[in-house]
Amino acid sequence: MAILEIKHVSKFFGGLAANSDVSFEMVPGMIMGLIGPNGAGKTTLFNCITGYYPPSRGEILFDGHRMNGLHPDAVCKLGMARTWQKVRPLAKMSVVDNVMVGALCRTNSLKKARDMAMEKIKVVGLENRVKVLAGSLPIGERKKLEVARVLATKPKLLLLDEVMGGLNPAESEEIIQLILDIKNLGITQMVIEHDMKAIMRISDRIVVLNSGEKLAEGNPQEIVSNKAVVDAYLGGE
Ligand SMILES: Nc1ncnc2c1ncn2[C@@H]1O[C@H](COP(=O)(O)OP(=O)(O)OP(=O)(O)O)[C@@H](O)[C@H]1O
Ligand SMILES: [Mg+2]
Predict the structure, then answer these.
(1) Domain boundaries, the chain
(2) Model confidence, pTM
(3) 1-79+156-237: what fold?
(4) Looking at the predicted structure, is the pLDDT value of residue 100 above 60?
């Protein structure tokens, strides 16, 4: 059974169709790559899936629940969590306190939240930075912190929006390994990324958006050899 079903989803901003009749499904455990040119509607689709915007048309089913109209906190409780393209840690709070914010979605006990946070901090490899203020972390570590915070909400489905954006090759490689580790934990992931080499390595399937519409869907090999995708997006890459 699909863990996520996107059915004919459209999102309009005035006359602009940021998403237009987009449909696809995800099965549990998979990594879905979501790619396309700037402005293609990738982040908007994340916003519709996670309850930040209600879709204008269509419906989204997560784990059998209809998501339309649910608020982000209810979405998170159901087991879906996302990171943001622009990382926004709570700058004046420590690394562990930032991650505890995620864990407090599952427990009212500060002790349990701290334990859960420490576990996720280890998963992302920030155990040497636990007491550091989040605002003082370099970008690579902020991205990891963001991942730790969403992992602490105990998601079944994780949506990562350009989690490698702005990173150097060594930092990107660490994030690739982290995404594969998360897959091994059994967590399903949808990953927006412009780095095609990375997306090819991690994705089981890829959906390509272009001008709000789904241009193509397939496994990585099918996507790189799809003429419409090459013409619209990959070009010289
Ligand atoms: N809240 C909003 N109000 C009006 N227009 C919006 C809003 N959010 C997004 N858009 C528009 O919707 C379109 C899709 O934007 P979106 O951010 O989803 O693209 P994207 O694929 O994530 O692009 P990028 O790769 O640059 O992050 C763009 O034309 C954008 O300007
Ligand atoms: Mg975006």
Answers:
(1) 1-79+156-237, 87-154
(2) 0.94
(3) Rossmann fold (3.40.50)
(4) yes
